[in-house]
Amino acid sequence: xxxxxxxxxxxxxxxxxxxxxxxxxxxxxxxxxxxxxxxxxxxxxxxxxxxxxxxxxxxxxxxxxxxxxxxxxxxxxxxxxxxxxxxxxxxxxxxxxxxxxxxxxxxxxxxxxxxxxxxxxxxxxxxxxxxxxxxxxxxxxxxxxxxxxxxxxxxxxxxxxxxxxxxxxxxxxxxxxxxxxxxxxxxxxxxxxxxxxxxxxxxxxxxxxxxxxxxxxxxxxxxxxxxxxxxxxxxxxxxxxxxxxxxxxxxxxxxxxxxxxxxxxxxx
Length: 268
Fold this sequence. Notes:
By secondary structure, the protein is α/β, with parallel strands linked by helices. The protein is 41% helix and 17% strand. Residues 204-211 have low confidence and may be disordered.
C-alpha cells in the first residue's frame, strides 16, 4: 500500500510493551510498520522513548491519553511533544461522560480547554470514537455535536466502531473531509453485543462472551471493505492510517495479528 504510511496502535500489543518495550518496537518495525501510536509509556521517560523510536526507526505519531488525566496533568502534553508526537488523542469516555449522560457537557468544555493546551504545546488534539457516541441528541449524533462544539478538534475515526454503530466508515470519513489526518483501521466479525467492552480490556466487570458474537480481527480478516475505506481516506487527505486490534483472535498472538494486518495492507 503506497498511499499512506502505516502505524500500529501499541495498545494492540500492550502485554509485549509491558514486558519489553525495546524488543516490541523492534518487532513492530521488522513487520513493516512506519510509526506507532502510544497508549502508555510503561515507566519510561519521554527521553528514553524518543531515543528508542529513533534507534528503531519508527515515527512516534500520536498518543492516546485519557481526558481526565490530561485535565489533571497538562504537563502530559509536553511529555508527548518531547517524544516527537504530532497528535494527542482523547481515546475513551467513562459512562457518565458519554453523550446523553449527565456529564457530557463537561466533555465539550474540557475538550475546548484541552485543544488550547495542546496547541500551546505544539500538538493537535484529536478525539477517537467508539460506538456509544452514536446516540441521537435531538436530531444529531453526540459525536457530531462534539465536533461541532469543538471545531478545531480533529476526528480520529475508528472504522470498526463507526460500522458497529450502524454507519458506513466511508461516509464518515468523507463527512469530515479537510479535518482529518489520522484514521484507525480496525476489523471485526459479528455485531454489537454485550461483550464488546470486556474485549477491549476496559470494562472487566462485563462478562466475556465466549460464544464469540463479536470478535476483533486483523485488518482484512473481517467484514470491513478496506479498499473503499482507503480510497475515501486518500480523497480527504489522510496522512497516517493506524492499525488497532483491541484483543487478539483466530488463534494468533497479538503480534501475529499485527503481522497479519500489515501483510494484508502491503498486498493492496
